[in-house]
Amino acid sequence: MQLKVSALSGLNAAAFDAAYLQEQVVAHQMTLSLIQNERTAGKDAEVVALANAQAPIIQQHLDQAQALLRSPASPSQP
Fold it and tell me: Is residue 33 part of a domain?
């Protein structure tokens, strides 16, 4: 974690925004993968129910982060 913080701290605003968004995409992809695994292989009904409830929300966040990453305008621009 500290390595990522150090790497991000030296970037200009546009580069920081792009790197941060990329990290958000990766984090949401990993989270969605874990949730989907729990949905299909989970043994605890309450945890599976929670995974089922959260999957669409995580997917929406992932879609939004990917859209921002593809956006021609940098989020740091007004």
Answer: yes
